[in-house]
């Protein structure tokens, strides 16, 4: 019998509301925050439950951080907890991108965004790198380094994640640890938006890093809803707002068909991942402690953390463009390591100010 939770559903929802409001850095950083806050500091969630949730989020299509948050809500409070934590996590950034979408349309673009993101992007790399270091140090045990390394190298090489890596890692470690015993026996544009973003949510595996190329191929190349520059700006909006990077779909939907387009795009993207998390969750909870399942989850977790580490390199290539940005990233990582209680929003704010100052007075 599962022990009673040491926290209320209200406390958990408030946590995810705050994370959705202040959690910068995209999926890689967000899953690290959840581990640090809910497992290490508050001890509301066990390490085993967190690993199960991370493995399920990696195996199922859809945005990684949102799925993990939904699963963590499910652990003690079932479907109600999964639903409320998912909404609390996603809605703050959804409303932020709506506001930025309105500003974008009113002023024909957001030129100041590049200066802000210049500093923020570098700082976020520092935060993500430290989160990846902590996860690696804590979770990768002897024997799992090979899986971890392959996943990291593949992510750096392909600049995307692959569900086959996670499945192969889980099956391989399961076969090594527990070898099986063989036995003999809506109106026009809204409908298009709905169906397209449902595909994005249901068939694209991995984090926001993986979904961006898919969105580009559809909204720019196939449908022509956005120009190249508008799409780049949409991704930038997602990166400078807290919460899941995939919330860029709300900005894209807004530019395409206003508030209705934003709402339809966000719902169509996140609802499949909600189902892919909630429906298999009871079976993960019931059978997750089985030695064979545990070995599979350990293998998937090693691949997931390797992918996170690889994503640091991929994102760093885009954000660390000169000596200033490298310095910002290194300084941020040092502060995270040396002064762990300094809140990330403060680091992000300072990085944004530094970015603006550098762009205005030096660059």
From TrEMBL:
Single GO cellular component term: plasma membrane
Alphabetical keyword list: Cell membrane, Membrane, Transmembrane, Transmembrane helix
InterPro entries: Chr_Tranpt_l_chain (IPR014047), Chromate_transpt (IPR003370)
Main location: membrane
Localization, UniProt: Cell membrane
Top-level taxon of origin: Bacteria
Membrane-spanning segments: 12-34, 54-74, 81-103, 115-133, 196-219, 231-255, 261-283, 295-315, 321-339, 346-362
Coiled coil start-end: none
Annotated GO MF terms: chromate transmembrane transporter activity
Membrane topology of the entry: Multi-pass membrane protein
Pfam families: Chromate_transp (PF02417)
Matches recorded under NCBIfam families: 2A51
Family: Belongs to the chromate ion transporter (CHR) (TC 2.A.51) family.
The protein's name in its UniProt record: Chromate transporter
């Amino acid at each position: 019998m599962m022990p009673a939770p040491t926290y209320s559903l209200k406390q958990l929802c408030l946590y995810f509301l705050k994370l959705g409001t202040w959690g910068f850095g995209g999926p890689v950083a967000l899953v690290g925050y959840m581990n640090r806050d809910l497992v290490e500091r508050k001890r509301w969630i066990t390490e085993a439950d967190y690993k199960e949730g991370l493995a399920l989020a990696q195996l199922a299509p859809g945005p990684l951080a949102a799925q993990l948050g939904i699963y963590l809500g499910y652990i003690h409070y079932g479907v109600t907890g999964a639903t409320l934590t998912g909404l609390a996590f996603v809605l703050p950034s959804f409303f932020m991108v709506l506001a930025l979408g309105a500003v974008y349309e009113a002023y024909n673009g957001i030129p100041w965004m590049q200066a802000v993101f210049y500093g923020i992007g570098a700082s976020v790399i520092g935060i993500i790198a430290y989160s990846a270091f902590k996860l690696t140090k804590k979770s990768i045990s002897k024997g799992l380094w090979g899986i971890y390394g392959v996943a990291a190298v593949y992510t750096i090489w392909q600049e995307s994640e692959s569900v086959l890596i996670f499945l192969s890692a889980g099956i391989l470690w399961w076969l090594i640890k527990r070898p099986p015993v063989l036995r003999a026996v809506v109106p026009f544009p809204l409908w298009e938006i709905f169906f397209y973003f449902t595909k994005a949510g249901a068939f694209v595996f991995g984090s926001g890093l993986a979904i961006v190329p898919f969105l580009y191929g559809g909204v720019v190349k196939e449908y022509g809803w956005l120009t190249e520059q508008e799409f780049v700006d949409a991704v930038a909006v997602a990166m400078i707002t807290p919460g899941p990077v995939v919330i860029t779909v709300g900005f894209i939907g807004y530019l395409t068909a206003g508030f209705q387009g934003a709402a339809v795009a966000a719902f169509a993207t996140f609802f499949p991942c909600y189902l892919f998390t909630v429906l298999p969750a009871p079976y993960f909870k019931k059978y997750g402690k089985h030695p064979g399942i545990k070995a599979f989850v350990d293998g998937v977790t090693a691949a997931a953390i390797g992918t996170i580490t690889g994503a640091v390199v991929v994102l760093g290539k885009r954000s660390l463009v000169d000596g200033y940005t490298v310095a910002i990233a290194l300084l941020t990582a040092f502060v995270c390591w040396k002064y762990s209680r300094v809140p990330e929003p403060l680091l992000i704010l300072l990085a944004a100010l530094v970015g603006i100052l550098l762009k205005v007075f030096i660059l």
